[in-house]
Fold this sequence. Notes:
Helices cover 81% and strands 0% of the residues. It has 151 residues and is an all-alpha fold.
Amino acid sequence: MAVYGGMLAQGVVYLLAKAGLTASGQSAGILAVLVFGAGTDYALLLIARDREELRRHEDKHEAMTLAMHRAGPAVLASGATVTIGLLCLLVAELNSTSGLGPVGAAVIVCALAATTSCFPPGAAARRVLVDGAALQRRLACTAGLQVDPDS
């Protein structure tokens, strides 16, 4: 997810540089830190909420939907706050610092987009592929052990 956000952010930064924005090597280094940091932060918030909802609801898809509805506004508010804060760097006098603002804002928006669009289906696919009880049953059957069908 963070890799997807990083690639998306690099593309956006390239387009910003083509449009005349000054993007330095410093901006590129900070880009990686921001996308992994913000993407991880947003994903952890969604994972925590998803785990809470899984304890309350049997249906995994319903749990993820509720997690997104409840944690989504907090993630969006966090992303918007950081984006606006980084855009304030546009008024800086140094070109390298003022160029960092739009680059950082683009990175945060890309991390936010990657987290909110890739995380829910990714988590659902992981649950289908790696269901703990089903995995234990498959391993036990492969080993030739008797399995309680209710477990």
